[in-house]
Queue: 2 jobs
Job 1
Amino acid sequence: MLPSSRCCRQPPLFTATFSLLLGCASGPRGAAAPASVATAPPAKYGKLSVIGTHLCGSDGKPVQLRGMSTMGLQWHGDVVNARAFAALAKDWKADVVRMALYIGEGGYAAHPELKQLVWKGVELAIANGIYAIVDWHVLTPGNPNDSLYGGAQAFFDEVSRKYGKVPNILYEIMNEPNGDVDWAADLKPYAERMVATIRANDPDGIILIGSGTWSQDVNVAAADPVQGKNLMYTFHFYAGSHGEALRSKVQVAIDRGAAVFCSEWGTSEASGTGGTYLQPAEEWLVFLDRRTIGWTNWSLCDKSETSAALKSLSDAMKEGNLALAARESLLVPETMGPDGYAIWGPGELSASGAFVRAHMRARAETGAAKK
Ligand code: IDC
């Protein structure tokens, strides 16, 4: 019998995580770049750009990037490992992984060393020929200009210096502004500062920009956009909480000429749990597919909440799967797949994870939008 604390805890900081950081601290052009980066396959769709309202590959055709977001790296950072990224790229057929660098809530502001995990994630994405979103996870407090987030400019300067020349990186400058924030007075000026900072090192990488009401006010941002190229606006939905009203805002933003990206969505309620709401999620995916809107699903972790893509140890215990429940975590895939690399087996995915993986694989197969 496992002690109950084992089933419910967040993993401790910096245990296996940093033992896995094998010389990945410098950029792909730096002296200590891992060999895997030097021999990396080209990024799946080459250099990305925004043309009109679409994210496009180097051939100028619209691409829908599909992938997973990590959970807070301060809690579930061990998921940034070579096996997990290979399983995502090859078994899930993911195009992109989003690294959720919380700033508050025990994140980067208190633990600046967490950025090493971001670098590691970017380099694992490069090594697998997929894309990485570096998410400055503004959540609490809701104003990105708050002093807690004072490290933003230095952070994006560093990220863009390190990776500005590789095609694999996308910068997400504010996860979810919320509360008493105004687009024109607070968020747009912040976005302009971050865009200028990134552009000094990376003249044309894709920059993702959040908006008010937890990145739902994409229509407001689109009415008064930040100047520059290769900018996109993010919106987030949770299938148990958001539906037609948010879809209308997204459509208004597109009609106003904005390129949009869904950098967070869940099959749960906005709390991260409840449900799963797979039928409403399906409706959203049809909406995204028809518009070729890229997305990353929340979240790749084994926490006991319905949005988590991996089964939790406590669920494994409830199912009587003692072998699974005895594992330290499910963040490192251990099941040998049919193609000779480790995957998460079907019994290791949550209802949400199984749904999202199946959708990703089906879309990668057909390449066509659902009607
Ligand atoms: C949630 C996690 C939850 C954690 C909480 C901390 O799922 O385990 O306790 O953060 O604040 C968001 C946020 C994202 C939330 C997620 C679900 O960007 O950080 O993660 N969510 O609540 N916006 C809407 C939903």
Job 2
Amino acid sequence: MIKVVKFGGSSLASATQFAKVGNIIKADPERKFVVPSAPGKRNSKDTKVTDMLYACYDLAEAEKDFSKELKKIKERYEAIINGLHLTLSLDDEFKIIEENFKKKAGSQYAASRGEYLNGIIMANYLGYDFVDSAEVIIFNEDGSFDADTTDKLLGERLSKLENAVVPGFYGATLGGVVKTFSRGGSDITGSLVSKAVHATAYENWTDVSGFLIADPRIIDNPKPIKVITYRELRELSYMGASVLHEDSVFPVRKAGIPINIRNTNAPDDVESTCHHPAYTITGIAGKKGFVSVNIDKDMMNAEVGFGRKVLSAFEENGINFEHMPSGIDTMTVFVHEPEFAAKEQAVISAINRNAHPDSIEIEADLALIAVVGRGMKSTRGTAGRIFSALAHANVNVKMIDQGSSELNIIIGVSDNDFDTAIKAIYDIFVTTQL
Ligand code: ASP
């Protein structure tokens, strides 16, 4: 039996936290492979080492003095090493990092050092082998992830080891250029390691209080989710539930390895389940900061290829679209505001050029809320309840999108109505317990 354990940044932010983690690992001999994040915040005013590294590298890239910033990062690690009474020096590592910063090795290289150094400390503390992820987690030159090569290299390497620490978040191209996943990506590394070693479970240890039906910053004491499917987990993570990186579901799902989120209210994660959800909905998550681009053209419905022409304008500018509800003579494309804002005019001219619409209107400051649940499929009136709850709460619904899987309903509202809308939906399904 092999378990892979991933620890988040706040679980590894200090020597005290490291010691707790050490005890957890040693308490179960099946916990053979460990994936650490970089040290996170020790308190709410603290800065994550990953953010310190990004900031430090920005100075290096601007050819400014970064020695003070790098020293502060070194001190974070030294506090952990000294607190654990280890005889380990990172002096040589920091010399190499400094040189590479001067050579402008890239911000992804810079950020990856957070996990790399924490992995060295963790391996030393546990007496486990250290496996540099740059040698076994493989990316393509364009920064995309190479799943097949990774699975092969990682599997071969780890099969020879009894125990090992594999730092999260980064890997490298076969040519050795370090690349990272997106933020929070150590969850993905944990999932990849689990698949490569055919783990019996992937334990993801985090400081948040369980996977909850809704964000505790919006709802007071939301109820925990008891059983969640991979698909629900991915939907909710993607839409802002910050427990797990949304892409970490795929490798373990394919291999049928359960993800076990370890904390006070730990749910079990399963592919499919006969457990009836406690409520019609499993969870609610959402994100602010969307823009809708509304495109009108008379007789749009009769024009073959109109949708493709519009979407190619986004594609040409490297912009991902989120949702695309449409009418007879109108279609709307939802995009992320930060990504879109920089290229707005280029996209609009491309739509005009490609599709010759009658008008294009843009609305900013929109939020998308996903109401997710396998229980919605067999229940009549779910959408009706959502919309009457929103109407009672005085929230104007700007967009509705329900996939045919009936696993989720996406609702677009104004950013200002975000919290009110989530509260209204939570109340109607959970507080009133209907
Ligand atoms: N340290 C990285 C971040 O802060 C990756 C991770 O923690 O998973 O995003």
